[in-house]
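Table S2 (text version). Query chain:
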Amino acid sequence: MIPYGRQDITQVDIDAVTAVLHSDFLTQGPMVPHFEQIIAKRVNVKYAVAVNSATSALHIACLALGVGPNDLLWTVPNTFVASANCARYCGADVDFVDIDQNTWNMSVQRLKEKLAQAKVENRLPKVLVPVHFSGQPTEQEALWELAQEYGFKIIEDASHAIGGSRNNEPVGSCRWSDITIFSFHPVKIVTTGEGGLALTNDSELSERMTMLRSHGITRNEEKFIKPNNSPWYYEQQILGFNYRMTDIQAGLGVSQIFRLDDYIKRRNELADRYNLSLKGLPIQLPEVSKENYSAYHLYVVRLRLDELSKSHQQIFEELRGNGIGVNLHYMPVHLQPYYRNFGFEAGDFPEAEAHGKEAITLPLYPAMSNEEQDQVIFALEKALS
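Corresponding structure-token output:
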């Protein structure tokens, strides 16, 4: 089976992890801040807070921005559930903004319309979570302009997009957002096994997220509520969590990050080959805006079902049966049973729903050979015939 995504672990990675295992610190040592500094420098952002998953990063980002009961967070329906769940962890409500039919990212036009109506109803979001779907950056400048007009904060869910850029501005710089989130799950572009990162240019947000990831504790003497010069002293000032990344994970991440450029280059090469080979088939190919350099975490196509005699499921199952590990990104979040409990139903976000009925994620990962990709192309052509 050719999987839709796969981690790339080299001997250099194994040696890096082994070195940490032989060191004095398996966790809470120097490797985590080293990893944070490398990525912060790479994406030109001031602060990076490493945690054990992107889900945890989204959670502490919401908390750092003061999200709580009676607040509202908006995101897109075509994402993993964590982009919405982070609000629910804080006791806040969730709503969605439909996607653009070409980029498959949040529709700026739909957002404008929804904000205008929400202002009339006095129900504006506290936080917006745009998702860089498949690795293509969102229209952050336009979103940021709306944030200034309507007074909401922005958390970029860039779980798919490390290594991507917009107008030569790296994803993660937080130029047009308050916080950006990266994911290091094994199928993502670089991996720490499991892991995530929250990036920001705001020192107060960084400090609060740093406390939240480690039980709400600080050892910063300048921040103590009750001054104490005892060498063992620390203070728990807020209710936090054990969301720390280990030095073992960070060691793998440090090793991986030095291959990021090569990974993104190969992903784009494979995407270009798909674009050339699949042109003319009854499918919609991914469209990358001219301002963007996509990280291509995923290569997603949409079936033109009105031109096909087979159903979405039939084509999906035929590809799986022929050894092609396709996937679906994503089933719309608002149609999950949990979110239906809040009154969401089919028809609420038609473009995201159409996407969920038509999308197929084809295999794409740096170690994929041209020959393996040719197998995928042949199988898809056969399935569509």
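Notes on Table S2: The mean pLDDT is 97. The longest strand covers residues 47-51.
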